Here is the input.
Amino acid sequence: MRAYRGRALLLALPLKSLIQRFAFALLVGAAITIMILSRAEPRLVDNLRGTVSDAATPILEFFSHPAASFASLVEEVDASLDVHKENARLEEQNAQLRKWQSIAAQISRENEELRRMLHVVPDPESSFITARVISDSGGPFVRTVLINAGAQDNVRKGQAVITSEGLTGRVVSTGRHSARILLLTDLNSRIPVVVESSRERAVLAGNNTPNPRLEFLAVDARVVVGSRIVTSGQGGIFPPGLPVGIVSSVGEERALVQPYVNWDRLEYITVLDYILPGFLPETKRAGRIGELK
Amino acid sequence: MRVATWVERTDLQLRGLTPFAFTLLMVLASALPWHLPSFAPVTPAFTAMAIYYWSIYRPDKLPYAATFCLAMLLDLLTGTPLGLSALVYLLVQVILNSQRTFFHGKPFLVVWWGFSLVMPGIALVSWIIASLYFNTLVPPMPFVIQAVLTILLYPLFAVLLSALHRHMMRGI
Here is the structure.
């Protein structure tokens, strides 16, 4: 009996390692195939991502609260250290903002008047929804976040995403109640922008670092450090004039932009519904993950 | 010999799931928004730490198929090119499977040293695959930062993991 079992074991062990090796080869093959397939047919993966993020939304929502409160605790301690200085700074800023508010109201009235006189075609009304960031990949590959609003809440692919500070990115895929946002720092992000003062057009191209590049600038473009960059509205997807950032460095061949958004505090974001009806068919809109423009 | 009761057997089986469950938790942790200043740009590779640990000590409880599924979930949740993590972590596991006995009974510093060799490998291979996938040179700096951050955090997780290992996997 014992001899028989020994022989069985002698046979079974190599068999087990053979099966394991076979499983390994099979799984590696599957991973490579899936990667090539997802490159060739991104829509398949988009749908799968939507389904999986929908399923994971309740779990991520549940855990994102403690994660956020941990982060805010660190911030709280940090802030309480110089609360007096901060208060003085805010009071000063408040006074300044009040002044700007009255100027803005005056200019906006005047603008309305002038538009009426010139019979300007009105921009489409944009509605918006605000959602919570429930997942932030933070990996080295992509700059995307997941929000807890999706197709059910009228979030659609291509819509612009902003925070109170400025443009954040755009929607790249949607599930029923979750959506993935491609941040403007991502390698695949391309946004038509304009230098506010000189009206030079350019494309803001992400590169996975905190400072995206200005591409396709005219050769003789006058761009200086500190120039404000806003969306140009070309392509009809982003409303024109959304603040994006300021030029942080100008080199021989490229200009880098420091976005206004504070990436460390991305907790709530606003999705703008601005897409001009019939302007671009859904399939032509830019920006799937893994799709370079 | 006393035959194990149904409860005992179920208990054993459930506790045997610890490596898988812990790695799943690490996958979810990778997808969470940790809005810490200067932490958000790159999250440590939590999943890599879990896979390294269990591949050395309990590879039987984290088979290739489990790693594959967990890595796929990680890619889907974080928006990484689908299949990339699966490929990288399977390679890590097959290498560790051939070397794991070397680490058994060795002091922690040796195991940590092992991890500090594996993690740059993960970063390099991921960077190469990502660059091929996106058909452009992906900026390498985030990969370097992530690798360093993960290596520095490993001792903390090793304490947690070995405590879990001792308590949950007793008699398995």
